[in-house]
Design brief:
Number of strands: 23
Largest sheet: 6 strands, mixed
Number of helices: 23
Distance between the termini: 36 Å
CATH topology of one domain: Dipeptide-binding Protein, domain 3
Radius of gyration: 29 Å
CATH class of one domain: Alpha Beta
CATH superfamily of one domain: Dipeptide-binding Protein, Domain 3
CATH architecture of one domain: Roll
Low-confidence stretches: 6-38, 295-309, 428-514
Mean pLDDT: 81
Helix content: 25-40%
Length: 752
C-alpha cells in the first residue's frame, strides 16, 4: 500500500474514504475559474436507488485493511475501520455530501445555528427528541460536555490525539429550551460543524479509564442504524448488526461484516466470492472489467473446442480455474471516483540544496504535472487533471487552481533558477570512470556494423530477432540467447557494463542514444516476460510459489536496468550541475510496499525530468512500515512522494501540515506535520485568520491566499488525486465509491 501519513485529526475525519493508497486526457489548469473548475464528474460513483426498491435482509462483506485496534475514534491509533464503525453506530451531527459540504443530520438534530458572534460565538444545537442511546437515555448536553472535557487537552489523563476546536470552547450547558445544547467559544471558530462527530456517550467520555481502555474493545452503548456485535480476532473481522431500537429509517441490511483482507489478496477473495465491496488496485479493476461472457461460457472447465491441440493436465487445471474466476468476477462492477486524497512531491527545505527556495522552484518547474497525472490515472478511467490546490480537491466546494503562483513546467526557467542559485553546468567535469566515455564511443562506432550484420542476416533468410543482444552485449555462455527460458535466472543476465553503470551512477553524459535505447527496450521486454511468468505462477497449477518469487525478482532487476538505460537515452539529459565542486544530487525516497507501483512510476518520471536540468537523484525505495516513521517524519530525505488525506475543514485540519517549523526548548525543530520543513509567518497568520472567520466568502479568500503562498514556497507540489476503485456486487445499491460523501448505512442493500 502506498504511503499515506497517519495524521490525527485529518486522518480520522476522512479515514473511511481512505481504505485504499496510491494510484487523468491532460487539461491545463489555468486558475481562472472557481467552483465550476472543480466539478470533475468523478466526485462519486454510487448506484443510488430509492429505499422502496431495496430489499430487506442480507449481508455485505466489506473489505478493510485490518481489524481496528480501538473503537475510540479519538485515540492516536484509530484507523479507517474505526471511523467506519463509528459512522454506522454513533451520532454524526453533520455528514458530508459529494462536494465535502457539511449537511445537517436530521436523525440527530432539528437545527444547529450560530446565535451570537459577539462578545462570544455561541452555537445552539436543537436535538431530535427521538434520538436516544441504546440504553434508552436521550442524547443530552451531558454527552456534549463530557466529550468537550475529554478532548480539550486540559486533562492529560485522557489519552487522546490532537483534536483541534475543542480547546476553543469556553462552556457547554443546557439550552434555554428542551432538547437544546448551548456551546460558547472563547474566540470565533469557523469549523464548528466539525465538532461532536462522532459523538460518544458520557459513559465513554466522562472517565479516563473508560476512554482509554474500555472503549478500545467495546461499545456497550451506541445510537445508530447498526450496533457492534463482535470484534473477531481469529478470522479478523468485525460484525455490525441492525439495531432494532434505531428511531430512523430501518437499516436494509441484516448485518455488515468488515473483513480484514490485505489489498494484495483481494483479487483472490473476489474470485472466490468472499467479498461484496472492496477497494482494489487498478490491475484488479481491469480484470473485473474484462471478465465478461466469452469462450469460457462455451467451453466450461477449460475444455478446448473440438480439433484444438490437446492440453496437458496442468493446462486444463489452470484453464478451469481461470474460467471459474472469470465467471465469479462477472458478478462485480467497478465503481470509480476521485478519492479525497492527493499524491504530492515533498521537498525537504531543512538543509542541503533544497534549503534554497530557488532550487525548490527549479525542481517544481522541471516537472510536467499534466503528464504525471495522465500516466497515473488515465487507465483508471478518471479525469486527467493535475491538482491545483493543497487545501481542496477538484470537486470540493471552493476549489481553485492556485498553481500559477509557482508556475507550470518551464525547463528554461528551471535552469535559470539553478544558475541564479549558483548551480552551474558541469559539462566540463572529469568523469569518474574515464573508460565510460571510451566505451560509449566504441558502442556508437560499432552501431553501423551491427546494423549491417542484421541486414545481412535478413538477406540470408535469417530472423533478425533470433539474437536479441543489443550492440556490444555478450551472448549467454554455453547456449544461444534465444534458447534461454523466459523468466529464468540466465535469461535475466542482460549485462550492463561497468562503464555504463558508472555513467548511470556518476557522470551524466549519455551513451549513444540508439545503443542505450535498444538495451532499454530489451530490458523492458524481459521485465514483461518475467511478470507474465509471475502471474501464471500466482494462478497455481504446476508452477510453484518459488518460481513465482524468482520471476518477480527477475522482473524487478530488469525493470531497474531498463529505467537506468532510459535515463541515459533521455534527450533532455544534461551535465550534472555543480556548486563549489559539489554535484547537485538529491536523495529521492519512494515507498516500496504492495500497491505502490503507480507512485514508483511517478517517481521515476520525475527523476528523468530532473535529469534534464542537471539534477541527479538517488532513488531509494523504502518499505511502508518505516517510510514515515524513520524517514519522512524525521526529515531523512531530500525528495519524497506520499499521499495526504483531504478534509472538509482545511482552515483547521491542514494548518499543522503547513505551519512554519519552530525551535523547541530542547533545541530541536517542532514541525507538527509539516514534514517538508518549509513555512512562513504569513501562511500561519492566514490560517489563523481563516479559522476565526465566520463569513464563508471571506474565509475562502483567506485560504486561497494561503494556498498561493504555499505554492510559491515550493515545499510541496500536489500532483494528482488518486483513484478510488471499488469492486462491488452488481446488485448492491447505495454503496460504492463514495468520494467525500458520508455513506448512508441504513440505505445500503441489494436491489429487489
Amino acid at each position: 500500500m502506498p504511503a499515506v501519513p497517519a495524521t490525527d485529526t485529518v486522518a480520522r475525519r476522512v479515514a473511511v474514504g481512505l481504505t485504499a493508497v496510491l494510484l487523468l486526457p491532460a487539461t491545463a489548469c489555468t486558475g481562472q475559474q472557481d467552483d465550476a473548475a472543480g466539478r470533475s464528474g468523478a466526485a462519486r460513483d454510487v448506484p443510488v436507488v430509492a429505499r422502496d426498491q431495496v430489499a430487506f435482509g442480507g449481508t455485505v462483506r466489506w473489505a478493510i485493511e485490518e481489524v481496528p485496534t480501538t473503537l475510540n475514534a479519538f485515540q492516536p491509533d484509530a484507523s479507517g475501520a474505526t471511523a467506519r464503525i463509528a459512522e454506522a453506530t454513533l451520532p454524526a451531527l453533520f455528514t458530508l455530501d459529494s462536494r465535502a459540504r457539511p449537511q445537517l443530520n436530521t436523525d440527530y438534530l432539528k437545527s444547529a445555528e450560530v446565535m451570537e458572534e459577539e462578545p462570544r460565538q455561541k452555537v445552539v444545537y436543537t436535538l431530535n427528541p427521538e434520538a436516544r442511546w441504546s440504553d434508552g437515555r436521550p442524547l443530552s448536553a451531558a454527552d456534549f460536555k463530557a466529550q468537550w472535557q475529554a478532548l480539550n487537552g486540559e486533562n492529560s489523563a485522557f489519552w487522546s490525539a490532537r483534536n483541534a476546536g475543542y480547546e476553543r470552547i469556553e462552556s457547554v450547558r443546557k439550552g434555554e429550551r428542551p432538547h437544546q445544547v448551548a456551546v460558547t467559544f472563547t474566540e470565533p471558530y469557523a469549523d464548528w460543524k466539525s465538532l461532536f462527530t462522532p459523538l460518544y456517550p458520557k459513559s465513554v467520555m466522562g472517565e479516563p479509564k473508560a476512554f482509554n481502555e474500555r472503549a478500545r474493545a467495546e461499545l456497550p452503548v451506541s445510537a445508530g442504524p447498526f450496533r457492534v456485535k463482535e470484534i473477531g480476532s481469529g478470522d479478523e473481522h468485525a460484525t455490525l448488526v441492525r439495531d432494532g431500537d434505531w428511531w430512523g429509517d430501518r437499516a436494509k441490511l441484516d448485518r455488515i461484516v468488515l473483513q480484514a483482507v490485505p489489498r494484495e489478496r483481494r483479487e483472490e477473495a473476489l474470485a472466490d466470492g468472499d467479498l461484496d465491496l472492496a477497494g482494489v488496485r487498478l490491475s484488479v479493476a481491469e480484470r473485473i472489467s474484462a471478465a465478461k461472457p466469452s469462450d469460457d461460457a462455451k467451453f466450461p472447465d477449460g475444455k478446448a473446442p473440438e480439433g484444438a491441440k490437446p492440453a496437458g493436465a496442468g493446462e486444463r487445471q489452470r484453464g478451469g480455474k481461470a474460467a471459474a474466476e472469470r465467471r465469479q468476477l462477472r458478478d462485480y462492477a467497478v465503481r470509480r471516483a476521485l478519492e479525497p486524497a492527493y499524491t504530492q512531491l515533498a521537498l525537504n527545505g531543512a538543509s542541503g540544496p533544497l534549503a534554497d527556495k530557488r532550487v525548490r522552484r527549479a525542481v517544481a518547474r522541471a516537472i510536467d504535472r499534466e503528464e504525471l497525472a495522465k500516466e497515473a490515472l488515465a487507465k483508471a478511467g478518471l479525469p486527467a487533471k493535475p491538482l491545483g490546490s493543497h487545501l481542496r480537491m477538484h470537486d470540493q466546494q471552493g476549489y481553485h487552481d492556485n498553481s500559477g503562483a509557482l508556475g507550470g513546467r518551464d525547463v528554461t526557467s528551471a535552469q535559470d533558477l539553478l544558475a541564479d542559485a549558483g548551480w552551474h553546468s558541469g559539462a566540463g567535469v572529469t568523469e569518474p570512470d574515464t573508460d565510460a566515455s571510451v566505451d560509449a564511443k566504441k558502442d556508437d562506432a560499432n552501431k553501423d556494423d551491427a546494423n549491417k550484420d542484421t541486414d545481412k542476416g535478413r538477406d540470408n533468410g535469417e530472423d533478425a530477432t533470433t539474437d536479441d543482444r543489443a550492440p556490444g552485449e555478450r551472448p549467454t555462455k554455453g547456449r544461444k540467447a534465444e534458447d534461454a527460458a523466459p523468466g529464468s535466472e540466465q535469461d535475466s543476465e542482460l549485462l550492463v557494463t561497468a562503464a555504463e553503470a558508472a555513467r548511470v551512477q556518476g557522470a551524466p553524459l549519455a551513451l549513444g542514444p540508439d545503443t542505450a535505447a535498444q538495451r532499454a527496450g530489451l530490458l523492458a521486454q524481459r521485465a514483461r516476460t518475467a511478470e507474465r511468468a509471475a502471474e501464471e505462477a500466482a494462478v497455481g497449477g504446476e508452477t510453484t510459489a518459488r518460481e513465482a518469487r524468482k520471476a518477480k525478482r527477475t522482473a524487478e532487476r530488469a525493470r531497474k536496468r531498463a529505467d537506468e538505460m532510459r535515463l541515459l537515452t533521455d534527450s533532455r539529459t544534461s551535465a550534472v550541475r555543480v556548486k563549489q565542486g559539489e554535484p547537485l544530487s538529491l536523495r529521492f525516497l519512494l515507498p516500496a510496499g504492495p500497491g505502490s507501483e503507480t507512485i514508483q512510476r511517478t517517481g521515476e518520471r520525475i527523476a528523468r525530468a530532473l535529469n534534464g536540468i542537471g539534477v541527479r537523484t538517488d532513488i531509494e525505495r523504502v518499505e511502508d512500515e518505516s517510510y514515515f516513521r524513520d524517514h519522512i517524519a524525521s526529515g531523512d530525505y531530500d525528495l519524497a512522494l506520499y499521499t495526504w488525506p483531504a478534509t472538509a475543514y482545511p482552515a483547521t485540519d491542514t494548518q499543522p501540515i503547513f505551519a512554519k517549523p519552530m525551535p523547541s526548548p530542547d533545541g530541536s525543530l517542532l514541525v507538527e506535520q509539516n514534514y517538508t520543513r518549509v513555512g512562513t509567518d504569513r501562511i500561519d497568520q492566514l490560517f489563523a485568520e481563516a479559522a476565526r472567520e465566520l463569513d464563508e466568502g471571506e474565509r475562502r479568500d483567506l485560504l486561497r491566499d494561503a494556498d498561493e503562498r504555499i505554492w510559491a514556497a515550493a515545499g510541496s507540489v500536489p500532483l494528482y488525486q488518486r483513484p478510488q476503485l471499488i469492486a462491488a456486487k452488481k446488485d448492491l445499491v447505495n454503496g460504492g465509491a463514495f468520494g467525500f460523501q458520508t455513506p448512508s448505512y441504513q440505505d445500503i442493500g441489494y436491489r429487489k
